[in-house]
């Protein structure tokens, strides 16, 4: 598909919260024709300066060829697609392909997929890994499942959203892959909190430990990205404990169904739940560090150290690699 084809197809976007706004803007900045809806219209209005059309209901996007959805969860996803004012509420018109970027349950996705099939509409499950800062750095990753032919049509747009997508087959496999991803997210965050507190109680500055970890084979985009939060104790939300617990719940439902024991993930879930019980529902889940410190008898203070989240460096390296491959 050529750039002109990308600009020529009419796209719809449902959900312009923190993530949805950043992703929709990337499509607009690439020259795509995008009409956007958000339940709170004011959150979609700023996209007008990038060329978006803003509409008042998902139903008004039914004539768009491809519609992306990025909403809060399973019930919201069902509402915007098959609800009274949803994408399927116009009898004579419906999109050709719906691409859902939300983390929803496989059951909810399968229900919607079945209703879409009756209208010959393809559904791609395409949950994402990242947050608005990751989106802005061009480092978002996506896992996709659904009809292969639909994936081929949508793939060029997914490339615009970040580092592209991994196609894992038909049906709801992408839902399982993303839930597995978020289970690992919680486990790694708690492990990082534990070793950071252990080192601090032994006299090592958090910035120094994390610099060592990030330079080692154990370093990752995640450990680098969370370093400023752990060093500065800045828990501005990118992903809240409530959202993380939702994904843990989805994961344990699947683990029960498939007969897979999850002892380490179960311990992490209880610690996320404890954070919620303390009322820390609007902070970032990196606040697990505070909880670990309290249980270890450590009083944390922000450290005055220059640290990076690593996204700029990684984005530059990715661009350099991409350029050398041409």
Brief account:
The protein has 326 residues and is of the alpha/beta class. The chain has 13 helices and 9 strands.
Order of helices and strands: HEHEEEHEHEEHEHEHHHHHHH
Question: What number is the mean pLDDT?
Answer: 93
Write out the CATH superfamily name of the largest domain.
NAD(P)-binding Rossmann-like Domain
Poorly predicted regions are none
Helical content class: 40-55%
Overall shape:
globular
CATH class call of the largest domain: Alpha Beta
**CATH architecture designation of the largest domain:** 3-Layer(aba) Sandwich
Overall SS class: alpha/beta
Query: Compute the gyration radius: what is it?
Result: 21 Å
Strand content: 5-15%
Please, how many domains? Answer: 2
Reported for the largest beta sheet, the result is: 6 strands, parallel
Q: Which strand order do you get reading across the main beta sheet?
A: 3-2-1-4-5-6
Find the CATH topology of the largest domain: Rossmann fold
Number of strands: 9
Instruction: Give the termini separation.
Output: 17 Å
Contiguous helical run count: 13
């Amino acid at each position: 598909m050529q750039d002109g084809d990308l600009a020529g197809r009419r796209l719809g976007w449902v959900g312009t919260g923190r993530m949805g706004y950043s992703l929709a803007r990337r499509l607009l900045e690439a020259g795509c024709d995008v009409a956007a809806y958000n339940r709170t219209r004011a959150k979609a209005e700023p996209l007008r300066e990038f060329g978006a059309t803003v509409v008042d209901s998902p139903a008004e996007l039914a004539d768009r060829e491809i519609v992306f959805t990025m909403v809060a969860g399973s019930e919201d996803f069902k509402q915007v697609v098959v609800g009274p004012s949803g994408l399927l509420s116009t009898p004579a018109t419906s999109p050709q392909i719906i691409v859902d970027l939300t983390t929803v349950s496989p059951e909810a996705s399968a229900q919607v997929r079945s209703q879409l099939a009756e209208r010959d509409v393809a559904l791609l499950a395409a949950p994402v890994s990242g947050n608005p800062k990751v989106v802005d750095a061009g480092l978002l990753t996506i896992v996709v499942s659904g009809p292969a032919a639909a994936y081929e049509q949508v793939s060029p747009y997914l490339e615009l959203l970040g580092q592209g997508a991994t196609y894992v087959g038909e049906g709801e496999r992408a839902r399982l892959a993303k839930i597995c991803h978020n289970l690992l997210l919680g486990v790694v965050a708690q492990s990082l909190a534990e070793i950071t507190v252990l080192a601090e109680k032994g006299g090592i500055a958090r910035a120094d430990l994390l610099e060592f970890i990030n330079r080692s084979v154990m370093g990752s985009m995640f450990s680098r990205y969370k370093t400023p939060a752990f060093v500065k104790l800045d828990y501005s939300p990118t992903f809240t404990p409530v959202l993380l617990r939702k994904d843990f719940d989805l994961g344990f439902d699947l683990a029960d169904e498939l007969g897979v024991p999850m002892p380490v993930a179960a311990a992490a879930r209880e610690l996320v739940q404890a954070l919620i019980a303390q009322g820390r529902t609007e902070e970032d889940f990196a606040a697990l560090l505070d909880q670990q410190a309290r249980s270890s008898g450590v009083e944390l203070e922000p450290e005055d150290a220059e640290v990076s989240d690593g996204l700029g460096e990684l984005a530059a390296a990715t661009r350099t690699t991409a350029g050398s491959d041409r």
